[in-house]
Automatic annotation (TrEMBL):
Its cofactor is Mo-molybdopterin. This is Sulfite oxidase-like protein. One of its GO terms (molecular function) is molybdenum ion binding. Residues 38-221 form the Oxidoreductase molybdopterin-binding domain. Residues 249-375 form the Moybdenum cofactor oxidoreductase dimerisation domain.
Length: 384
């Protein structure tokens, strides 16, 4: 199938680390974390003079400095940011061709983000009565970066529900730091949104404007991209019929991948006929943390429970509410040994999260190759 979405102009930087490097550390180092850009990087933005606006359905529109954000209580969130197109390569090779960057399994990073809560920032401006519904907040919060021309639009933007933004438990922050250091320009300096559990596209970098509004963002990257179009949308022309009726993606699904052994490699069994297997797993949206990862070396007939690692903590961290809360948005790294027959073989993985979401055997094909979460798989192994 021909690609309908050829990019024009300068190709922005999009890169992912190889899986071995990614699995090497629980907290993904800033230099390892994937980069996903729809535009070139901005030149240095001076954090002392940069201002951004809070507008829309607020009592008092504001223009804020970074110093105003530093003056608010700071909140740290350990969270896995992932591009909606992570694992696209597997969707394209296992099901059929899709349009989009050929991400393998590395468009994901587990980092500590720090900054004020978005709800505290919005409270500075005061929310208008019109967004106060009977059962909670109505409307949306739009994040916009105005400075940079994107491939498909004049600027970058996206939104999340105001209810999510205002819910303390949802941990939505305006991040000033990543892994204990000021944000780098690549990752959104001086300030970016971080929306845990939601596709990375909403964690807008280089923020210029936050607007409270009744409607979802009408931005290209909210309305004409990052949607799980139905399978009937087989090409760009057919997709036109479905963009408006398909909701934008929001929460990411429960997922896991087998990182080691790599697909297509030769592995040697130990004296018991077992091989070492490692990978990562993430929970669905707000339903974390991951509580179980199962691995199979016999095509899913039998499953072995993997040992979970939450950054030096084992699964006993899941026993208390505080423990679970501390890794709710995070990934776990997992490892185990499984028995595999000699010859050609494969290993499979499937994750379950705290709410009981189980990673499905099959993934749904969708034109833009987003949201793939079929069982993790390392195929075409030569087992000796
Ligand atoms: N301003 C702006 N913000 C953006 C993007 C962008 O192109 N421009 N890309 C988004 C997407 S699609 C993802 S997955 C994440 C990637 O964040 P990272 O580059 O820090 O890993 O940023 C999001 N925020
Ligand atoms: Mo993304």
């Amino acid at each position: 199938m021909a690609k309908d979405y050829e990019y024009t102009g300068e190709e922005p930087e999009n890169r992912e680390p190889n899986i071995a490097e990614l699995l090497d550390s629980y907290i993904t180092p800033v230099s390892t974390a994937y980069d996903r850009n729809h535009s070139e990087y901005p030149e240095h933005i001076d954090p002392n003079t940069h201002t951004f606006a809070i507008t829309g359905l607020v009592q008092k529109p504001l223009s804020l400095h970074i110093a105003d954000l530093r003056a608010l209580p700071q909140h740290s969130v350990l969270c896995c940011l992932q591009c909606a197109g992570n694992r696209r390569h597997t969707m394209r090779t296992k099901i059929k061709e899709v349009n989009g960057i050929d991400w393998f399994d590395g468009a994901i990073a587990n980092c500590v983000w720090r900054g004020p809560r978005l709800c505290d920032v919005l409270s500075l401006a005061g929310l208008d009565d019109s967004v106060r519904g009977e059962k909670g907040w109505v409307g949306h919060v739009e994040f916009v970066c105005d400075g940079m021309k994107c491939q498909d639009a004049a600027n970058y933007g996206g939104s999340v529900a105001l209810e999510r933004a205002m819910c303390e438990d949802a941990d939505v922050i305006l991040a000033l730091e990543m892994n204990g250091a000021p944000l780098t320009i690549k990752h959104g300096a001086p300030v970016r949104a971080v929306v845990p559990g939601v596709l990375g596209a909403r964690s807008v970098k280089w923020l210029d404007r936050i607007t409270v509004q009744m409607h979802e963002s009408r931005h290209f990257y909210q309305q004409r991209d990052y949607k799980m179009l139905p399978p009937e949308a087989v090409d760009a022309k057919e997709a036109e019929k479905f963009w408006d009726s398909t909701p934008p993606m929001n929460d990411m699904p429960v997922n896991s991948v087998v990182g080691i052994p790599r697909q297509g490699t030769t592995v040697r069994r130990d004296e018991n006929g077992m091989i070492d297997v490692r990978g990562y797993a993430v929970p669905a949206g707000m339903d974390g943390p991951v509580v179980k990862v199962e691995v199979s070396g016999d095509d899913g007939r039998t499953w072995t429970e993997a040992v979970l690692d939450f950054g030096g903590n084992d699964c006993s961290i899941l026993d208390s509410e505080d423990g679970r809360k501390s890794v709710r948005w995070a990934w776990c790294l997992w490892r185990t040994k499984v028995r595999v027959a000699k010859g050609s073989g494969r290993v499979l993985s499937r994750a379950t999260d705290f709410k009981g979401n189980l990673q499905p055997r099959e993934g749904q094909w969708t034109l833009r190759g987003v949201g793939y979460n079929a069982w993790g798989e390392s195929a075409d192994l030569t087992v000796i």
